[in-house]
Amino acid sequence: MAEVGEWLAVDARASRPLFDQLRTQIIDAVRDGRLSPGTRLPTVRELAGQKGLAVNTVARAYRELESAGVLETRGRFGTFVSRVDPADSAMATAAQNFVSAARALGIEKAEALRYVESAFD
Known about the structure:
There is one protein chain. Helix 3 (44-51) crosses helix 4 (55-67). The protein is 59% helix and 7% strand. The protein is elongated, with a radius of gyration of 18 Å. It has helices spanning 4-7, 18-32, 44-51, 55-67, 86-104, 109-120, and strands at residues 40-41, 71-73, 79-81. It has two domains: 18-81, Winged helix-like DNA-binding domain superfamily/Winged helix DNA-binding domain (Arc Repressor Mutant, subunit A), CATH 1.10.10; 86-119, no CATH class. By secondary structure, the chain is mostly helical. It comes from Mycolicibacterium litorale. This is GntR family transcriptional regulator. Residues 16-84 form the HTH gntR-type domain. One of its GO terms (molecular function) is DNA binding.
Protein backbone atom coordinates (compact mmCIF):
# COMPACT_ATOMS: atom_id res chain seq x y z
CA MET A 1 0.00 0.00 0.00
CA ALA A 2 1.35 3.41 -0.97
CA GLU A 3 2.18 5.99 1.63
CA VAL A 4 -0.49 8.68 2.07
CA GLY A 5 1.85 11.40 0.86
CA GLU A 6 2.51 9.54 -2.41
CA TRP A 7 -1.03 9.65 -3.79
CA LEU A 8 -2.51 12.62 -1.97
CA ALA A 9 -2.40 15.70 -4.19
CA VAL A 10 -3.77 19.18 -3.59
CA ASP A 11 -4.09 22.02 -6.05
CA ALA A 12 -3.80 25.53 -4.61
CA ARG A 13 -5.40 26.93 -7.79
CA ALA A 14 -8.52 24.74 -7.50
CA SER A 15 -11.79 26.34 -6.44
CA ARG A 16 -12.20 23.91 -3.52
CA PRO A 17 -10.36 24.75 -0.29
CA LEU A 18 -7.20 22.74 0.38
CA PHE A 19 -8.56 21.16 3.59
CA ASP A 20 -11.60 19.94 1.62
CA GLN A 21 -9.40 18.46 -1.09
CA LEU A 22 -7.51 16.52 1.60
CA ARG A 23 -10.71 15.47 3.33
CA THR A 24 -12.39 14.11 0.20
CA GLN A 25 -9.24 12.35 -1.03
CA ILE A 26 -8.87 10.56 2.31
CA ILE A 27 -12.55 9.55 2.25
CA ASP A 28 -12.13 8.23 -1.32
CA ALA A 29 -9.02 6.29 -0.27
CA VAL A 30 -10.89 4.68 2.63
CA ARG A 31 -13.79 3.71 0.37
CA ASP A 32 -11.64 2.27 -2.42
CA GLY A 33 -9.32 0.39 -0.07
CA ARG A 34 -6.11 2.42 -0.43
CA LEU A 35 -6.48 3.21 3.28
CA SER A 36 -7.65 0.17 5.18
CA PRO A 37 -9.15 0.27 8.68
CA GLY A 38 -6.48 0.71 11.32
CA THR A 39 -3.99 2.41 8.99
CA ARG A 40 -1.94 5.05 10.79
CA LEU A 41 -1.86 8.40 9.01
CA PRO A 42 1.07 10.81 9.10
CA THR A 43 0.96 13.37 11.88
CA VAL A 44 -0.52 16.74 11.02
CA ARG A 45 2.97 18.26 10.92
CA GLU A 46 4.40 15.42 8.80
CA LEU A 47 1.67 15.64 6.18
CA ALA A 48 1.76 19.44 6.13
CA GLY A 49 5.53 19.29 5.56
CA GLN A 50 5.25 16.63 2.82
CA LYS A 51 2.63 18.62 0.92
CA GLY A 52 3.86 22.15 1.67
CA LEU A 53 0.63 23.04 3.48
CA ALA A 54 -0.13 25.00 6.60
CA VAL A 55 -0.46 22.83 9.70
CA ASN A 56 -3.94 24.28 10.30
CA THR A 57 -5.09 23.09 6.84
CA VAL A 58 -4.21 19.47 7.59
CA ALA A 59 -5.49 19.76 11.16
CA ARG A 60 -8.87 20.97 9.92
CA ALA A 61 -9.16 18.08 7.44
CA TYR A 62 -8.27 15.56 10.16
CA ARG A 63 -10.68 17.21 12.64
CA GLU A 64 -13.58 17.06 10.20
CA LEU A 65 -12.80 13.44 9.31
CA GLU A 66 -12.67 12.56 12.99
CA SER A 67 -16.02 14.28 13.62
CA ALA A 68 -17.50 12.28 10.73
CA GLY A 69 -16.13 9.04 12.20
CA VAL A 70 -13.73 8.34 9.31
CA LEU A 71 -10.60 8.85 11.45
CA GLU A 72 -9.90 8.32 15.12
CA THR A 73 -7.14 9.84 17.22
CA ARG A 74 -5.52 7.59 19.78
CA GLY A 75 -3.69 10.13 21.90
CA ARG A 76 0.06 10.12 21.43
CA PHE A 77 -0.18 6.99 19.24
CA GLY A 78 -1.51 9.02 16.31
CA THR A 79 -4.41 9.27 13.93
CA PHE A 80 -5.84 6.13 12.34
CA VAL A 81 -8.50 5.14 9.85
CA SER A 82 -11.54 4.06 11.85
CA ARG A 83 -12.38 0.39 11.95
CA VAL A 84 -15.92 1.03 10.69
CA ASP A 85 -16.98 3.17 7.74
CA PRO A 86 -19.58 5.58 9.20
CA ALA A 87 -21.30 5.65 5.81
CA ASP A 88 -22.24 1.98 6.26
CA SER A 89 -24.18 2.69 9.42
CA ALA A 90 -25.73 5.95 8.18
CA MET A 91 -26.80 4.46 4.85
CA ALA A 92 -28.18 1.30 6.49
CA THR A 93 -30.30 3.45 8.83
CA ALA A 94 -31.50 5.65 5.95
CA ALA A 95 -32.34 2.57 3.89
CA GLN A 96 -34.35 1.04 6.74
CA ASN A 97 -36.28 4.30 7.19
CA PHE A 98 -36.95 4.48 3.44
CA VAL A 99 -38.17 0.87 3.28
CA SER A 100 -40.41 1.41 6.32
CA ALA A 101 -41.95 4.50 4.70
CA ALA A 102 -42.45 2.68 1.39
CA ARG A 103 -44.13 -0.28 3.10
CA ALA A 104 -46.37 2.04 5.12
CA LEU A 105 -47.48 3.63 1.84
CA GLY A 106 -47.99 0.25 0.16
CA ILE A 107 -45.17 0.80 -2.33
CA GLU A 108 -43.49 -2.33 -3.68
CA LYS A 109 -39.70 -2.75 -3.99
CA ALA A 110 -39.44 -2.06 -7.75
CA GLU A 111 -41.43 1.17 -7.46
CA ALA A 112 -39.49 2.26 -4.36
CA LEU A 113 -36.20 1.70 -6.21
CA ARG A 114 -37.41 3.95 -9.02
CA TYR A 115 -37.75 6.75 -6.45
CA VAL A 116 -34.15 6.20 -5.36
CA GLU A 117 -32.89 6.16 -8.95
CA SER A 118 -34.75 9.35 -9.81
CA ALA A 119 -33.37 11.07 -6.69
CA PHE A 120 -29.85 10.41 -8.00
CA ASP A 121 -30.67 11.95 -11.40
